[in-house]
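Q: Two folds, back to back.
A: First:
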Amino acid sequence: MIKWCHNAKTGEIFSYNQEGELTDFPRGDFLAYGDYLTTQFTTKEEAIQWAKEYGQCLKCRSSRKPDENGKCRFCGEIVVFSHEK
C-alpha cells in the first residue's frame, strides 16, 4: 500500500510503500529528520493539507502546528514553513 510523508524541515512530500510491518521508507531520511517527519497519510492530498498547517519548530526540532501568533505551542518559538525560508 502506498503511504505519504511530509518533511517539515525540507517541505518535501513523498511516497513510500508499506505492507504490514514491512516498509521501504528511506532510512536516511528517518535518521536525518526524525520528528520533522509525519507519516502514514493515505493520500498525497492529505499530506499537502498537513503541510499547509504544520511547519517546523527549530527549537523543538519537530513538526508543529503554530498557535494564533505563529508560535510553537510547546516552547513559544516561531514555527517556520519551508516556503518561508
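A: Second:
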Amino acid sequence: MLALIVLPSINLGANAYIENRSPIANCSTETVDSSDHDKTVLQLQRIYQSEKFELLESSLSCLLRPTFKFDSGRPGSSAIYDFFKRTMPGPGTDAAEIDRVRKWEKQNRKSIFARFGKARFEYSMAWNSRGKSFAQNVSEESWKAFHAGLLRAEQDLLEAPDELRNTPIWQHLLLAVSQDAMGAKSKPRVVFEEGIKRWPGYYGFYENMLRRLVPKWGGSWKIVDESISTWSSQRAATEGRSLYARLYASVLMEGAKLGQTLIQWPTTKASLNDLTHRYPDNYNWNLAASYACLFHEAKSFKEYVSKFYPQRVMRSAWFKGSALEGCMQRLQ
C-alpha cells in the first residue's frame, strides 16, 4: 500500500544540476510574481504565445532554482510544470502546437525547456487519441494510439540530457506517463519514491499520485487518507502539520465530495492554522476560508475571510461548487 511505503536510498548527487546553470540575480517581474503562482503561470503562457523565447528561457531558469519559492510555499518548478500542462493539456492540445515548440528549440538549441515541451506534446497528443470518454467507450484503435504515444513520450524523457533529467518537472512528467502507459519501462512507485526523496518539497508528486488512489481509479478513500496522513508525518520536520490540508485540497479540487472522503475538520483546522502561519499568503487564506465553508465552520470562516476580504479574493483557491458570496450568506 502506497501509504506505508519505505523509501529506498537514492543518490542525491544529481541535484548538482542547478549549480551548473548560470546564476540569475532576479526573475523578470514581467513574468514572475512570487506572490501569485497562477498569475505567473498565465504570464508564462502569454510570453510563450508571443514567442518571446529569450524572456521565457530566463524566467523558467529562474523559477527552476531550488531557492525560489512562492509565498504560498510552492516551489518555482511547480509553476513551470503547470505552464506546460495548461499550454498543452491532455486531451485538448492543438496538433500545430509542436510548430511553436520547434521554433523555440531552433532559437535555443540547448534549451532543456523546449526539449521538455516536445515530451509534454507527445503525452498530450496521446491523450488526444484516447479522448475523454469512459474506458469502455474508447475504441481499440484509440487505445493503441494512446499507449503508443505514451511510450514515445517516455522514450523522449529517458533519452533527455542529464540537465533535464535532473529536474523535478522531468520526474513529474515521467510519473504521469508511467501511471498511464501500458508497457512503460518506468514503474510509478519507483518514480514517485525517487521524486519525493530528491525533491521532497515538490508537492506535485504527491498530488499526481493521489489522482490514482481515488476509487474511480481502483483505489479507496481509506488509501487516500492513509497516504495523506503518512506523507504529512514524513514531512513534519519541515512542513509541520500543513501538508495534510494542502494535499486534501488537491483531492477536493479534482471534484471529490467532502462526504465521500475521510477528511476530519479538527485535523484540517490544525493543518490550516499551521499552513497559514508558515505561508501566510493570499491563496492560503482563501483556501482556508473555502475549507471552513465546506465544513460549515462559521467562526473559522469569518476569521480566515478577515485576512483577505474584500480586496484580495482569489477564485482559484475556492473548491468547485462553492463561492465566497454564497458561503458568506450561509455562515452569517
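Q: And?
A: DSSP finds 17 helices and no strands in the chain.
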